[in-house]
Amino acid sequence: MDIKDEKALTIEKACTINVFAPFVRNVTAEDEKAVTNKKHINSSATVHVFHGVVNRTFKTKGNTVGLPKSFSKAVIETLSYKPFAPICIHSRSDEVVNGFPLIYFPEDLASHDISGKDWKSFIHDVNMACSFSDVALMGLDQILNLVSFGLSAYVISYYVEKYVDKAKFPIIKGFIEMWNRKFFNPRKTHVYFINSDEVAEQRAVSIKAYQQGKGTKGLFSKFNAQREWKKQHQDISSTQHSRLLLISL
């Protein structure tokens, strides 16, 4: 797909929802292990690439070649899309190359015509992109060679034209924006990728708001308020993990 076929391509605006807000639900690698009943999740690049390619279609001709199979699903215009609380999915580790947990949310996503198979395909796509997160330093020829691994020409073109000098984790952002445009947005949902630096910024904002809410003024009282905040958020306070934030529109 030529990038000229796409109109109004713009870099996604920053997320305005703080991932530490009390109404945000959090999902971690431990939840994935509990759901799958596995102590170890294989998060190797080989596994990510394999599933990313399997979930794409190569049998048809035209603009659908190399794109996820879910993109061919027709949108149900008469469906009533039920809003749900934002879901924050933490990366499996502080190394984003290990990807994100694969957990489906039937009560929230089924009402948006997003099946377990669709969500699995998306997570596999993101995890495949995570495996390629270091390609920001590659040359153009090397990037284009990634098409053989299932990367669509759309993502590559978007990466080269829009992200190469303007964003961290360009391949991951390219994949997610493609899914938002082609699949999630028409179904009244949206996914943000929030890297660890952005998580740290949001945590600082959340801590400051907590301190202000407690009416702290001196250094000691601010320090105690910060300790209280960290204790309340001890399971999700790490800034080393990137996040996926799933919201309803």
Notes on the protein architecture:
Keywords: Cytoplasm, Nucleus. InterPro entries: DUF4646. This protein is α+β, with helices and mostly antiparallel strands and 249 residues long. It has one domain (3-248). The protein is built from nine helices and four strands. The protein has helices at 29-36, 45-54, 106-109, 116-131, 140-145, 153-163, 170-184, 196-213, 219-232; strands at residues 25-27, 87-90, 189-194, 243-248. It has a four-stranded mixed sheet. It is globular, with a radius of gyration of 19 Å.
Please give the structural blueprint.
Blueprint: E1 25-27, H1 29-36, H2 45-54, E2 87-90, H3 106-109, H4 116-131, H5 140-145, H6 153-163, H7 170-184, E3 189-194, H8 196-213, H9 219-232, E4 243-248
Parallel strand pairs: 1-2
Antiparallel strand pairs: 2-4, 3-4
Pfam family, one: DUF4646
Subcellular location: Cytoplasm; Nucleus
InterPro entries: DUF4646
